[in-house]
Amino acid sequence: MTDxxxxxxxxxxxDRLRExxxxxxxxxxxADSAFLAWAANDTLGAGARAVTAVSPSLAPEEEMDCxxxxxxxxxxxxxxxxxxxxxxxxxxxxxxxxxxxxxALLDALAPFTADGATVVLGVNLDDLGDHRPGxxxxxERGAAFPLVDAGYTKADVRAESARLGxxxxxxxxxxxxxxxxxxxxxxxxxxxxxxxxAESALxxxxxxxxxxxxxxxxxxxxxxxxxxxxxxxxxxxxxxxxRGAGYTYVTLDLExxxxxxxxxxxxxxxxxxGEDR
Length: 277
Description:
It contains 12 helices and 7 strands. By secondary structure, it is an alpha/beta fold. The strands form 2 sheets. It has a 4-stranded parallel beta sheet, sandwiched between helices. A hairpin with a 2-residue loop joins strand 5 and strand 6 (218-223). The radius of gyration is 19 Å and the shape is globular.
């Protein structure tokens, strides 16, 4: 691609990545971090690495897709284990959970920055509207947000990804599994495993954008509004799938999928964490 054909936003992003180089991309496989990983690799070559944090809060399908994308795009990629569940502050699941999660991520990425590399995250302008403790933790530790610096919104990331032919351009949002657990309910390995099994089983039935919100032995399922009727029509298969994951009661939220709707409890207390999806 010649310089005159590069969109101004992508040119700014490339310039910013060169300023930060070498970089380590915190690569979750979502549309934002995938676009950033592709751009960093295309711009910096050996000066860019992509690292995926692997823990029980990452859906197994997401780890597999990160591996696949790394192969497809020739990324210098590595998985790294994070131990946020061992931190009582994280497991307590209060409004600062994302702060402790991101702190654990930055600790795990530290060995990859021994050569002076900068950790970069796929945060876009739309992510800056709310109080986000994870971003706070990242900024405190010197991480950078190149998409913000280059002026990208979420829509811009998807549009640019589509123009470049990246298959992640329309990938559904997929926050960490802990975001399915209401604040105040402890996050445990058992809870995360149950949520992961339930969501995997529902995806196998053809539901792409979904959340299984965890309320003890009750699952509250959110799907896109266009899928609500279909899920009700396929209720026998849906109930079997979710009960097979360990739930006793299976409910369908008629309002449909809403990103971050568990944050209402925090908003009522004067706090909000937009990182929970």
